[in-house]
Structures are given as C-alpha cells and as structure tokens.
C-alpha cells in the first residue's frame, strides 16, 4: 500500500509516518458479538466502530406483500468516543443532523449492492456504533457494515430463509475519506488531518471500482476540477485496498 | 442557454421541451417580504422557495468576543409543497434527517463566501421555506439565499453596522442539480426526472467557477469516472448561467 | 366600505388613512399552488396567508365506517413572517399554545359549514401558513381557508367522489378582528393597532350573518356591555364585506 | 339564586333540578394545602379543582429590572378526572392544545386584576389541577385561582415583601359557563349539558360586572345576536353570584 | 401502635412526638372520586396521595388472546405538592427518572398479588397522584393503590366481568419507609427525617408478612448487616399495622 | 471461588457448570479507550460493559463556589447488546424508565465512596455502555465504573488538579446480583437464570463489606426473611471476590 514515489514527490511524510496514499492500519474482526446475526469490529487506526447486523423476518408496513426485503442503517457515537465527552442524543431527546446524515449515507451505501428480491421479505438493520473516533468514522462504518451484512446473509441462507444459490449481494461496498491538507491530497484522514483539511471528501465505491457516493466539501477555499481529480484518484486506490482487506476478512 | 447540438446528439427533447443542458425558467424576485433585511422568492420552474435573511446584532455564545460574525441556514417545506401532503415536522415534534441535511448544506454553501471578520459580530439567519416543490429545492434555495444574503449585507452597510468598503462577501455562490436519466446526463432535474434518475448530483459553485460542494449519489447502478465527468461539465455550465441570473437580479 | 359619518364622529383617520369601519385592501388569489386540490393566497393589507386544502380519501381511524367526512386545519407562521425572526416550532420540538389555539379555532370555524354526510368518508386538511404577519392572521386564514375549501369540494365533485348535487357546504364562513384602540372601536386591526388595543375581539360569521365564534379579550381595562355591542356591530358589517369579496373571488 | 319565574317560563327544570339561571352548589375551601402560599379547593357541583398559588422572589429574565411582577397560570387534569381515563400529557411528552388554551385563558383572566407595579419583582404561579371534571373546569379554575391569589398576596404582605397598603389586586375576577341547550339558555353547564349544547360560552367578569373575556362557540347551528344577548345576561348574573361567594370565602 | 419501651430505650421522642416504631396518623378514604372504578385518598400524616383505579376491557396488544389481565401504575406529583414548586413534567416534555422509578415500583408491588388468569383480559391502571408530599409518598401510594384495586375488582365482579367466586387478588400489599436518622432506626419517615437519614429503606410487604420489595440505600455512610436487620424489623411491624388499617378501611 | 460443599448440598450444578456461589469469569481491562481519563472494559461472562470516566474542570451551576466536586453516571445499551435488537432511545426521543433507574443506581453507588471536598470543583462523568448483555449489566457496570473512577482520580493527581496526598476515594465499591432460581439461592445470575428467578436482588458493597444499596424484588412468590438472609450471604461473599479482582486489576 505504500507509495515511495508520491512521498518523495510531495515532501515530508505525514505525522504518523504514512505516505499520502496510504491507509491507516485496518483491522476487521468478525463475530465480535454473540447475539447478532453478523457483527464486525472495524478499526481504521484508532477509529473503532462496532457494526452489528440484525435480521428480522418481515418488512416495514409500507413494503409488506411486495416480496422485497429491506436494509437500513443507524449510526451513533458513544459519548466518550471523542476527545471531549459529548452529550448523549438519548438524553438530549433528539438526534443531531450529523447523526441523521451519516445514518442515511451508510444506508444508501449498503443498499447499493442489495438485491431486494433475492433477500425476500426480510429486514436487516445495520447498527454502526463508534466506540472511539479518530477521523473517518463513517467510512470505517460502511466498510465494516458490508462485512457484517455478508455474515447476516450467510446466516439467512444457513437457516434456509433465503435460498443458498440466491445472490442477495450484487457486489461489495467500502468507503474511504480523502482530503487536501496543506495543499497536498491525502488518503484516509485521521482527526488531526481532518480538522486542518481545506477540502474533505468521502467516497463510497463498489468492489469493481465504480462510485456509489461522492461527497466533497470545501472547508476552506473552494476547489477546482483538477484537485477534485487528484482526490478521486486517491480514493479509488484506497477502495481497491479496502476491498482486498474485506475479502481477506471474509476468507476469500 | 439552449444547446441545439447536444439535443440532437442525445435524441429526444425532455418532456418539457428543454435541451439536456438547459435550466428551467429561473426567476429571482427580491424584497418579497416587508420585514426581512433581505428576501427573495426564487423559482426554478415550478419549484418555488422563499428565502429570508434575518440580521441580528451579536453572535451565539460560543463565538462571543471573537470579533467574528456568523451565518446559518434553515430549510423547511410547507406541508402541501409536494404532490401529496406531508406531516408538519413541528407536529411530529422532530426534524427529519433530510431537513437537517439540507439545512446544513445550505449553511456550508453560503458560509463559503463569507468573510466573518468583515461581517463583525453580527448573525445572519437564512430561512429557506419551500412553498412548492418540483425537484431541485435545495439548489434553488442556495441560489436564492445568496441573493438575500447580499441584500442583508447591504442593509448592514446602510445602517453603518458594517463599513461600506468592507467586502463581507468574497464571491457569489449558486447551485444546480444534474443527473443521469435514461442513460443521458441532464441539467436541473424536475421532480419527474429526479425520481427516474440513476445518478443524482448536487453541485455548489462559486461565481468564479470553483466547487464548494459536490454530492453525487447512485440511486440505481453505480456510476463510473466518465459519467461523473459528464455530470460535472453540465453542472459547471449551469452554474455559469445561474451566476449571470443572480448578477442580473442584483442589478449588476 | 368607507363610512364618512363615523370617521367624522370619531375624529382623526387611522394611521393608514382608513375609516374606523373599513377593512384593509383584501385580495384573494385562488390556485396559487399547482399541487393542492384548493389553494388561496389571501391578503388583508400586508398580512399574507397561504391556505392549501388537501384532500385524502378515507377518514381518521376513530371515524371509519361512519359514512361521515372530516375537516381539520393547521396554522403556522414562517419564522420571518414577523418583524423579528421567531424560532421554528419544528426546531423547538413543540408547538406553542398560540399555534395550537389558532389551529383549533380555524378548524371549528370551517367545520361549522360542513355537512359531513354529504362529504362522505373523505378528509380535507386546511393548511394556513402565514407568509407575512401584520395583524389579523387568524381571521385572514379563516377567510381564505373557506375559499380553498370550496375549491377542494369542487375538485371532489369533478372527480365524482362526491355527487355534483350534494351540498357539502351549508353556507360560507369568514372572520374579522375588531378592537378598541384609544377608546375608539376599529375594524380589522393591523399589527400596530393590535398591540395598542385595550380590547381585542375576533369574530367568525357565516355568510348569512350569524355567529360561529366570538372571542373578546380585555388586554387593558375590562370592557362593558355597550362596548361589546359596538364591537359586534363593526364585526358584523366587516363580515358582510368579506362575504361579498369571497363570493366575487369564487366568481359568483 | 333560584329563579322560580324563569323556570316556569322555560318549562321543565334541569335534570339536576336547577333553574336555568342557577349555579350548581359552589364550595370554596381555602388553605387546602400546607405548603402553598395560597391554595383553594373549588367545587362547582361535582367539578373539583385544586388551585395552588406559588410565590417566588424575582421575575422571568425578560422582565428583570423592570420593577414589575409577573403572574402566570398552568391548568392540567388528573388522568382519571374524567369519565374515561385519559393519557397523561407527561407520558405523551407534549401538552395538548386544549390544555395550552385553558392555561392561557386563566393567566389572562387573573392578570386582568393585577397591578404589576404594586406586586414588585415577585412571581406568582397559579396551578389549577382538575381532580374531578363535570363541566366548567376552566371557569371553576379561574374562580378559585383568584381566591388563592388573594391569599398569596396577603402572604407577601405579611412577610413585608409587599407594602401592606399597596393595592396589588385592582378588583376580583370570576368566571362561569353558559350555553344554549335544547334551545334554552342555561347557566353553569354540567358535563351532560355541555355535550348537548348548541352554543357554549365562557365569560370572565370582574367583581364590578365588566368583561375580561367572552368566548362563545357555536357547537351546532350558528347563533344570532339575540341569543348572544340572552347568554350574556345569564353570565352577568352568574358572575354576580360567584363574586359574592368569593367575598364570603375571603371573610368579607 | 405506640411502643413505650422502645421510646425509652432510644431516648428523645421524634420531633412530632412519635415513638421510633410508630406510624404517622394514617387515613384511607375510599370513593373519593365519582367516576373511577376504585379511588382512595390515602394520608400518611401530611402526605396525601389520590389513588384512582381505572378499569378497561381488553389488554395491551402484546397480551391479547392470552386470557390474562394486566395491571399497571403511574405515579406523579402535582407541582405544588412540595415545599417549593417544581416544574410540570408535561411542560418539560419528559418524565424524570424518579417518577419512572416509582411508577415501576408501584406496578411491581400491586402486581405481586394479582392472579392475571382470574382477572381475565381486563386492564386496571392505578394512578397515584401526590397532592401533598411530606415523605413516604411511594409507600403511601402503594398502600392506597391496593385498596383502590380491591374496589376495582369488586366493581368488575358486580358487573359480572369477573366471576364472583374468583380470587383475583391472592393477598394484600402495603409499604412503609424506614431509615436510620441520627444513628436511630425509625419507622415511616416524614420529609424532615428523610433528608437527614443516613440510610433510607422502602419495604413492600404482603398481608401475610412476606417481602415483595426491599430497597435500601446508604445516603451517608454504608450500613452493615445488623443495621439492615433492625430496619427490616421495624418495617415488618409497620406493615402489620398498615395491613390492619387497610382491612379496616375495606370493612373487614 | 468454587464451593464444592454447597454444590453438593444444593444438587445439580448450574447450566454453565458453576457452583451456586461462584461468579462467572470476570475480566477487567483498563485503558480500553485512548481519549478517556479512565476507561475499563468489564466482562462478567458474556456481559460486556464499557465504562468511561470523563473529567471536566468545574461543576454544575447549582454547585458552583461550594468547593465540592461532582460525580454522575449514565447507563445505556447498544441496540444489539441483547438477543433481539431493541430500538435506540435516541431514536425514540426519550429515555426509558429502566435506563434512568440504572443510571441513578450507578451514580449513587460510586458517589458513596467519593469525598467531594478532596475532589475539589471537578466533575467526573461515568458512562457505562453495555456492548453485550447476558444478565448483571448494572452490577458489572458499577464494578467497572469504580476502576475507571480510580484511574480518572489518578489522572487528576498526575496533572496536579488534585493534591497527590488527598484521599478522594474513601474506599472501593462493587456490585453483584443474586437470586432464587428453582428454589435455590444463586450468585451472579446470567440472563437465562435471571428470567427464571423467583426473587432477584442487586447488592452494592464497599470493599470493607458494608452495604451501599440492597434492592430485592420478588418476581414470582414473595420471599421471607430467611431467604433474604441466604441471598445477602451469597452477595457478601461475591463482593469480597469482586473487590479482590478490582484490586488486582489496579495492580494492588
């Protein structure tokens, strides 16, 4: 994953010694929970997200009788996942905009590879709870949630709720953040880099290298078409690496 | 704004007769309200958004004493803006994820061109209320909110709260949606096109053609780098047209 | 509508030149929205309320199988309808007492002329959203909502959901405010008069001149029976004028 | 309080034997609570409302430094005050429109006789909790709240927080319901009469016979000016009787 | 109920003259409400709780078709039950932890003596509303709720909804508080004693002297096994006395 | 920790092979998080609770200027901690009674050993998030929270915010559940045992063997004094074992 050339080209290594196009150490631990039909503890460096896939028979009321399944996601953060403690959303009595937004993003990302017909009238909820945050929690969550989803689908097949030959998942999905920090495009930003980034982008890709979601935001100065291109190059490569790690974790 | 060539190239005209790279009729009516410091009724075809800029002296507590101003935005929809009536968020007692997400997007978009130091310790709230929705409500909101913001800044200068020579706004900002519908990249989707789009993208640009925000989502099949490029081309041109319309509305 | 005698009798004209028993310029614009089954932009001077009637088949659960229809109303104000911006009730997470109270009043007012049996098991929701407030928002809302209701009933008849000969509406309904300002009874108070009123009364009348609702409140000194009588006289006349304007708007 | 003539004139006595212009047995018990600065258990027949006046030094933030006091009221109903149990508003997490409306009415009623300057920067909250409901809970609440307010003011004077010679209360206030039932105007409706009333009116009067609030609603057919007059006659007389009972309870 | 010996042994009498093992004057008034199927005003000294039992046919959804009944309880406090006024939970929009906890305790306590099968598919809700608080509100509530429950069951039998010979209640239940104050174990603490208690315990017993619930908390120093024993002794005796008072109130 | 005698005495071993007075395997992992001032992952068998101690300078408003510190706790469960997924309290918009109750219990438990004066005006929040639940989550949370609290106090001392010689903690605290299952008193119930328990008790002890909290509930038949004694015996011994494990984890 290292890239000696680029490091040379763009000068000093990152504060943790990574090359600009290098992911943090990624770890994907399956079956971290005993009760969930699929569960993954995913780590991108110090970012640690617990992804649990819960299967229930049946679908929400508005989808009943359609023969189609449903997949949804919920993202949340423990109060002390961050440097300073944040108040619980359950205590505040309302979910913040950021939480909503990321839950919706994860849901769209994983749904992009689900064949609802093959899933049948089953619902899978993907809970992504951030135990520790150090940048990239939403991309780690998507990357881990996909693996938990695979295990939940396997569970459905073992139980015979879905036919073994059905391809419920039409591909894999993963995500990574990229950004421009001090004028330099970097892959997989940690918190320290994230707060300093002029432009910040989250990219969700399928295993075959196409885009499911591209979300770029100028935090400082607006960015031009060329910078956008450089970020997309980095993100595409990062997703190739993450796809390989997902496959390895799944024993393929 | 029309593009005879492209229409030819890509076959049939759109259901409302537009060329693929053609905006809907855009109307920007300033001073639609009597009380607000800036107000704009912006129309993108049948989409109609009322943008009100409210100025208050002072800033939120966390920013007091910094010498810096603050700009924020709130987006909402009247219950019968849509084809079918939707329940009021005030009645439901909570704001939906979509509302939160769009409010945050509008806020980031307009803040990209604000010089907080020049604004001084004043707060401007931009309320974007959708009176009628026919696709592209968030992009119309951003385009109108910028014009209302200009008027609010002018009001501050007239009153002497901000020095007349200060450049509070470092540029202009506008936004447009693009998408791939039936395999064809289209500019400024109306509702009917939006629900059929395979890929849907919202692009926020500054008046000098750089990106503030790029949000692309695969609604159907994932999209590749080439399709992404075609959509960005369309969006850049649409924003050039919208910038011209904003300038005209502001009498420049 | 003017009343030279009374103006003479009670001295100086009002700050906007009106006679004591004179309505502000009233405008009733039908079909202001494209999607709603009935919609009216009603203006009482600078007060501007958008009234949308939404029809749905069926009735709430507690009324199912009764053969009777249902009509209800919701009132709300855009945050910058007023001189100073007010916080959104959706953001606060709860609806204020004033909003509740006015929604209930509008609902009772329009229900007074509905024959539920003739309506059949259909529901009509009347959304009254104040775009700009300058006193009398609730009375403008009732006056406009009735016209939107007429159009929604016509829509039901065109579609054949209600028989063309059925009289769903047993009459018309409109409303006006009256008050005692500087010891003088005045019709249709604007905001400036409203805040100075010693007594403030909202009166809802049917087109044939009977009362649906009378709500009088002493804001300053209590009022006596004679003052009450003078206010009712003014209100009755105002409602005669408003009824004529409603009929004209409906093309009768 | 009985009126043999009217009973004769209007035919059959009411189901509880009362004349049309006769109040139910009214009982006003002071000092029903040990902790509150003023407290009254007021009964209008089977309607039973506990009114507690709580004094705190100081006023809400928006009134600080004005030298003026503040008086407010909150109305609520125990879940089993009614024939069928109703859900608690604390459990539902929101206050219903009816509760809000009545709380606001009680507040306006008692404030009509308060001299804020004489009260000084003290706040009095009047809690009116309905222990049992049989029609007329809001009018009983106002009638009792006034007496509790008197005791709270006396408490302030005893403590020396308000000068003994200050007239904090400029008069007394009470309230009664009237309505047209089976075509006949009746005073002080119990629940059974209330649900059958074609027109329902709540009237708040000062001790010297002027109006603080008049709220008349057509529940069935609209009402005309003559009927309105008959109801006001009844209400005025009922308030004379209630004022006498309040005076007696206060030992005057 | 007095115990001269113990008073002697432990020195000075309590501030209200009671012996350490003496209950406050207890009063149980049945049928305090006209509408409820069972209702009791229970007083432990100045603590006054209104307990209303509401019967409805049927059970919650999750229990339908089981043939079993359901009993639940809700506890609340009027805002001026306490020395200082507290805000209404309905106004705050959420129920506090203490309220929840006590509601759950009362529910468990009364359910301990209910035979759901004998009750059949009926639901009884026990509303315990504290009108005045002077310590021991939860124990008074349980003691009163049981008596109201008895009356509600009798009502069901009279109506024939439950067979007369069925034993719906397998026993009686009551509760009392005990605590260590100034090193001395005391029965039935009033507020003044409660705030000074080092250890505070609530004990729920059946009429035959067994425990349904024991909740002891060290407010100051932790307590040892011997102190725990002394408190349980006191509580057991207190419950014997309360059981006798319940029986007497029920005419047994 | 095993007790061959008792196993023999009370017949068959437990389904997981434990003796009646045997704890599940307990694991206490310190510093599980990088950001928190103290953090512990505590495991009682398959029950897994993450306890994070967050230090902030200063105290809540009501305690300012007192010179005293403050310690509080919040308990929550991840949605898929349990066998079946439960809805998030943040999504429901309100915290359930059980959550409130356990948060309050943990807070009281740890506060029992805090010397607020020695802590000075610092606040420590103890977040106890259940990652996986298999019975005894509240007792595991208390046991782990104490260790995290120790580490947070050490952090304060290292930073010099508290003097090194100050004894902020007056002792240690831990907790365990006991219950009667199939007539047999058992220590440290797992979920399967917990649902079958006739009586269920949670006991919080200090390291020197005194009680901070005793909460016993009859789930089935009421329990007598002798059974209570047997449960307390078990709990006392369990707490001795847990205290030793806490000391070991802290390297004492």
Automatic annotation (TrEMBL), chains A, B, C, D, E, F:
GO molecular function ontology, one term from the record: tRNA nucleotidyltransferase activity
Location of the Exoribonuclease phosphorolytic domain: 22-152, 172-237
Chain's role: Phosphorolytic 3'-5' exoribonuclease that plays an important role in tRNA 3'-end maturation. Removes nucleotide residues following the 3'-CCA terminus of tRNAs; can also add nucleotides to the ends of RNA molecules by using nucleoside diphosphates as substrates, but this may not be physiologically important. Probably plays a role in initiation of 16S rRNA degradation (leading to ribosome degradation) during starvation.
NCBIfam families with a match to the protein in the record: RNasePH
Subunit structure: Homohexameric ring arranged as a trimer of dimers.
Catalytic activity: tRNA(n+1) + phosphate = tRNA(n) + a ribonucleoside 5'-diphosphate
One Gene Ontology biological process: rRNA catabolic process
Protein name, as recorded: Ribonuclease PH
Region (Disordered): 1-23
EC number: 2.7.7.56
InterPro entries: ExoRNase_PH_dom1 (IPR001247), ExoRNase_PH_dom2 (IPR015847), ExoRNase_PH_dom2_sf (IPR036345), PNPase/RNase_PH_dom_sf (IPR027408), Ribosomal_Su5_D2-typ_SF (IPR020568), RNase_PH (IPR050080), RNase_PH_bac-type (IPR002381), RNase_PH_CS (IPR018336)
